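seq/struct pair 1
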Amino acid sequence: MSANPKIRIFLTGVGGQGTLTATTLLAKTVLAQGLDVTSGEIHGMAQRGGVVESTVLIGCKSPKLGHGEADILVGFEPMETMRALPYLKKGGLIISSTEFMPPLSVAMGKEECPTIEDIKAAVAGCTDKVYFMASQAIGLEAGAVQAGNIAILGALCAAGELPFGPEALEEAIKVNLPAKIQAVNLKALELGVNALNT
């Protein structure tokens, strides 16, 4: 990997999942490696169940990310992973949860929820570099359902597409998260790395 890599990461989930917290932690991890990073929220809804989209752009001058430009798509909710596929460049990396947190439109019966098989088929049409994991279950195993996001970030850091590994995220957790939730998140990180390698 070059000394000044350009990597565009698109992250998506639903409100209440901690997508923006995970985005901020990832950006701080990048920054701690001495790399240029731009992070932003494209579309966020504070209310529970709204779509949340954000970016972490490493070594990029422009803060914008258009369709077909993301090197990596991180989906904290599988339906949102599928919805965000237009942003992924052909052959890019996807790391996604398999566990649904249906948005309001589905909960109210206005929209159908695709099956995980539908989502995997849609993803397979874009890339074969994909890892799915039951992030909420991993989070619960670590001690808190929200820690599932850290499991996904751990898998991302272990996937070999970033200029650093899981140790950098481990350090960022110790520096940036409150002491009382560090142990749970460090466990989730370890479980996420293990999930990638199974």
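seq/struct pair 2
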Amino acid sequence: MYMEWNGVMPAVTTKFTNEGELDLKMFAINIDAQIEAGVSAIVLGGSLGEASTLNNLEKQRLVEYSASLTNGRVPVVMNIAERATSEAIKLAQNAKKWGASGLMLLPPMQYKATDYEVVEYFKAIASSTDLPIMIYNNPIDYKILVTLNMFEELLSCDNIKAVKESTRDISNISRIRNAFGDRLKILCGVDTLALESLLVDADGWIAGLVCAFPEETVAVYKLAKAGRVEEAISIYRWFLPLLELDINPQLVQNIKLAEVATGIGTEYVRLPRMPLQGKERERVLKIIEDGVATRPVLPDYKQL
């Protein structure tokens, strides 16, 4: 399926049963809610998807099941976050066979590679597949910054098309646009900077709280792109306390609690993650409960 790097793309959570197995039934409920709300693609197996706890067979099952479930309605993007280049290449080659329409690439895991090593890592994966690729640029969490000079080299690979911009420096969007124009599509990867990013010309939003609030997330995107900024701001201000749950080490537990509150998920996580406890659980639940109780009435954003 043709991949366009724009719109809202949920970094979906991986649903588990109480026994720790994949819960494809609840996963399907959530994916259907995302598509009904108007998302542009589904991103599987990222940090929010607890990728580090998934084996390759489970990744295969998730991609194949998602491709079957979406049935051409939206593309499926598979995340790759590996220690070894050889393993990343194998996953990239298998992803297309499994039904993925695009890839999101993280830099090498558990090793702070040099700029040269990072570029060569990405190039090796890109040259092994014809799937379009989005580079995940997140120096806060992964300690590696993909610079403009590095992107200039990477764009020699025809299938490197986009960046998930998570530097948390809003001006970096304009730097990328000034340097590359439309050669590199820009998608915001930080929920609390999403509207600001869209208003300075980001093409899309790789979102987290969309997992629990898909309609509100897509409405913010659509209104912003339609120039209805005041309406977008109004929803975004309601949304902000919830969006801040995404910029937290326990983002998976936080967002899964929100999915429970909106009826499209469960709380189950895989060890070493554990459900929130004590006062932190109470704090997060209060934010979620307040958000659900005051959900805004949305305009007919799907027609925009």
